[in-house]
Every structure is written in structure tokens, then in C-alpha cells.
Design brief:
The complex is a heterodimer of chains A (227) and B (215). Helices cover 83% and strands 0% of the residues of chain A. Chain A has 227 residues and is mainly α. Chain B has one domain. Chain B contains 6 helices and no strands. Chain B is globular. Classes of the chains: A mainly alpha (227), B mainly alpha (215). At the A-B interface, helix 7, helix 8 and helix 9 of A face helix 4 and helix 5 of B.
Chain lengths: 227, 215
């Protein structure tokens, strides 16, 4: 078994490396989500930065930025395979589960890179006082995991349609809304200075959401991918 | 025969909903909408379940008839979700003071409407029938597994004005005076039969349309 598992990990890493390589040739997805986030953030800071915003408003704004930036770039990972007509070759060279997980981790890294740039900027421009850094990090980590797990499979669905532009947002929003509501609630608790235990139900919610979404994605990805 | 029975049942529900005393004394006469609001909300969720199950059967058997069944159930579900939203917000205006106040229950029904909307947006974005069927089946499954989070967990985290225990209480015992349940349960059954009847008609219509397109 261990050899089988390590074999599997090697294959996923290979897909992941391939994604990184092809992304850094053009930097299309990374540029588009980063610029989207920066533009939105600047607009926000320019228009409402001078007002004293309450913590619930600030945490909601943070997740609105993250959600829409993710929407602008995370479907690329599948759409580019269809556009460059490389999907068939990929289908032949790896198992669907391996492809899904490789692309999932790539999207996750993309989202983390976005957060590394956006969140410090957000903290500075909207002058946030974070009372509990640990909780903020945990909520961001788990929220991103859930966000990526749902958008990766929906991105796969979108890449098979004839209209690719705005469909990802339309399809993801109803599925992601419970996650967003709870992440916003958790971020608010972190800004207010709650301990990890105080946000226990939020953390459990985010974890279970991610597990459910990932399991369903792995089950159904093959159906979508082979379509 | 079935149609006559359904007619009698619905007539019974409509007449007795107005003759019996109002179900909730504290809310008064307006609470009679309970007999129609709760069954519509029930049907809108049931239709989604039926649609998803037919989607799963499609994925197994790859027979486009199941896709027609699935999309027809969604079409009727959208109608009932709309009815539940409108009747609910009318009730909310009287008892909570505003048509819409983002109560977690209102959020849930709103999301259900959005899911139906997204489902039809996805269907209209794919041209090939079998691809459309498979993609929309997978989407409805993905949407369905997030429903428990929305219906059972989010209202627990946030406070809701909506009674969670109006029909069954925490011990799953029916919480209703006998007179109310004499109208409510027939109404629930009547709405369910009504749904399955409209659904079978819609399936027949869609099958004819597909046949005409194909031949």
C-alpha cells in the first residue's frame, strides 16, 4: 500500500508541477486575480477608507474581495486545457482523480499567493485592528480550502460549456454562500479578539464543508472531465 | 380518477383552511397562510430532490428521458419556490414587520431560487443534449449536498425568527392541535400529488417537443 500511495502522490505532484510551469509561462491566471484584487481593494479604500467601518463590515468586504478575485481566475486551470486543446492528451496521460487533485492544489497555491498580497494590503488600507492573529489565519486557511474545493469542480463544469465568461460566478455563488457567511462570521470573531475555542463551531463548519465538497468533487470529477 | 380525487382533496383543504380556527392564536387570521406556505416550501425542496435523483439515474443509464424528467421537476420546483418566497414574505410583513429582512430561513429559500436559476443558466450554456444532461446532473448533486449546511447549520449559528419547531418539535413529535393537522396534512399530501401530476404533464410535453426537434 505505501508504494501505491507514494506513487499516487508522485503523479499528483507531476500534474501540479505541470500547472505551475505552464502558469509561469504566461502568468495569466495569477496576474488576472492579483490585479483584480488590487483594483477592487484600491476602489474600496478610495471610496470608504475614510469612514470608520465596523468589524462586521470589514470582514464582509474582505471576503467579497477574495470571492470575486477567486472567481476571476480559478476556472482558468480547466478553461485553458479546452482552449489550447490539450485536454485530450491530459486525459490519456493521467487518471481523473490525479488531475483533479493536482489542479486543486495549484488553485490553492494561487489563492494563497493572492492572499499573501491582498490581506496585508487590506489590513493597511482599511486600518484593521486584528485582536486574534491565530484565529484569523485558521479561518483564512480553512475558508480558502473550502473556496478552492468548490470552485475547482465548478470550474471543470464551466470549462465544458459554450459560455465561459460569467458562468463560474453564477454557479459558484449559491454553493459557496454558506461557506462565505461562516467565514465572514469567523473573521469578525478574529477581529473582535475571540479565542480559537470561541469560534469552534465556525471551524468545524468550515472543515466539514471542505471535506464534503472534496469528496463529492473526487466522486463526480470523472463524469465531468470525460464529457 | 386521480384528478377527481385531487380536486376533492384540494377543495377540502381550501374550504377548511378558512373555516377552522386560525392555526396560531397569537398571530390571528393571517396564520391561515400556513396551510399553503409550508406545503409550497416542502414541494420546492421535494422537486429539487426529484430532479437530483433523476439526474443520478441519468448518469448511471445515460438515457435522455431521465434528463427530461430531471429538468421538468426543476421547472416546477422553481415555480413552487417562487410561491413559497412570495407567500412567506407576505406572512413576514404581517408578523415580523417587513417583507424581507434576511432571516436565515429567507436566505435558504433565496439560495434555493438562486440554485434553480444557476441550474437553468448552466443548461442554456450547453448546446449538446447529453453534455447538458450530465453537467446539470453533477451540478444539482453538488448544490444538493450544500443544502444541509444552509438549512440546518447556518440558522443554528445565526438567530432566526422563523419557528424551527412549528411542525415537529425536538423529540420529533408532531406539535399541532388535532384540528390544524386535519387540514395541514391533507394539504401537504394534496400539494405533493399536485406536484407529481404537473410534473408528469410537463415530462409528456417536453418529450413531445424533443421528438419534434429530433424528427
Amino acid at each position: 500500500m505505501p508504494s501505491k500511495f507514494s506513487n499516487w502522490v508522485t503523479k499528483i505532484t507531476a500534474v501540479f508541477k505541470k500547472e505551475i510551469k505552464s502558469e509561469f509561462r504566461t502568468r495569466y491566471a495569477l496576474n488576472s486575480i492579483l490585479m483584480f484584487a488590487v483594483v477592487t481593494l484600491t476602489t474600496l479604500s478610495f471610496t470608504v477608507g475614510q469612514f470608520a467601518l465596523t468589524n462586521p463590515v470589514k470582514s464582509a468586504l474582505l471576503w467579497v474581495i477574495l470571492f470575486f478575485s477567486a472567481m476571476s481566475g480559478l476556472a482558468q486551470v480547466f478553461i485553458k486545457e479546452e482552449e489550447r486543446r490539450t485536454a485530450s492528451i491530459l486525459k490519456l496521460s493521467a487518471l481523473p482523480n490525479v488531475i483533479f487533485l493536482g489542479k486543486f492544489f495549484f488553485n490553492l497555491v494561487l489563492l494563497f499567493m493572492l492572499e499573501i498580497v491582498t490581506i496585508p494590503l487590506f489590513l493597511i488600507l482599511l486600518s484593521l485592528q486584528v485582536e486574534s492573529w491565530l484565529l484569523l489565519l485558521v479561518i483564512l486557511l480553512l475558508g480558502s480550502l473550502g473556496l478552492t474545493s468548490a470552485t475547482t469542480i465548478i470550474g471543470a463544469i464551466v470549462s465544458k460549456t459554450n459560455v465561459k465568461g460569467t458562468l463560474l460566478t453564477v454557479l459558484s455563488f449559491p454553493i459557496l454562500l454558506p461557506l462565505l457567511v461562516i467565514s465572514i462570521q469567523g473573521t469578525k470573531l478574529a477581529l473582535d479578539g475571540s479565542h480559537l475555542a470561541g469560534a469552534g463551531s465556525e471551524i468545524i463548519f468550515l472543515l466539514s464543508y471542505t471535506i464534503v465538497m472534496l469528496t463529492a468533487s473526487i466522486l463526480f470529477f470523472e463524469t465531468v472531465w470525460m464529457e | 380518477m386521480g384528478k377527481i380525487l385531487l380536486f376533492l382533496l384540494m377543495s377540502y383543504v381550501i374550504i377548511w383552511a378558512y373555516i377552522f380556527p386560525a392555526p396560531q392564536q397569537s398571530l390571528g387570521e393571517v396564520s391561515r397562510i400556513f396551510y399553503f406556505h409550508v406545503p409550497s416550501a416542502w414541494v420546492s425542496v421535494l422537486a429539487f430532490l426529484v430532479s437530483m435523483l433523476n439526474g443520478i439515474i441519468y448518469l448511471k443509464k445515460r438515457d435522455l428521458n431521465y434528463d427530461i424528467k430531471s429538468s421538468s421537476a426543476s421547472q416546477i420546483g422553481l415555480l413552487f419556490a417562487f410561491l413559497a418566497t412570495v407567500s412567506g414574505s407576505m406572512w413576514a410583513k404581517v408578523s415580523w414587520g417587513a417583507y424581507w429582512n434576511w432571516d436565515p430561513r429567507q436566505v435558504s429559500i433565496f439560495i434555493l431560487l438562486l440554485i434553480y436559476g444557476a441550474y437553468f443558466a448552466l443548461r442554456s450554456a450547453v448546446l449538446e443534449n447529453d453534455k447538458k444532461a450530465a453537467l446539470s446532473a453533477v451540478y444539482s448533486i453538488l448544490a444538493f449536498i450544500t443544502v444541509p449546511f444552509l438549512v440546518f447549520i447556518v440558522p443554528r449559528v445565526f438567530e432566526s425568527l422563523h419557528p424551527a419547531t412549528s411542525v415537529v418539535d425536538q423529540n420529533l413529535k408532531i406539535q399541532m392541535s388535532p384540528k390544524v393537522s386535519l387540514v395541514f396534512f391533507p394539504s401537504l399530501v394534496g400539494f405533493t400529488i399536485l406536484f407529481f401530476w404537473i410534473w408528469s404533464l410537463q415530462v409528456k410535453i417536453s418529450q413531445r417537443v424533443e421528438l419534434k426537434k429530433g424528427g
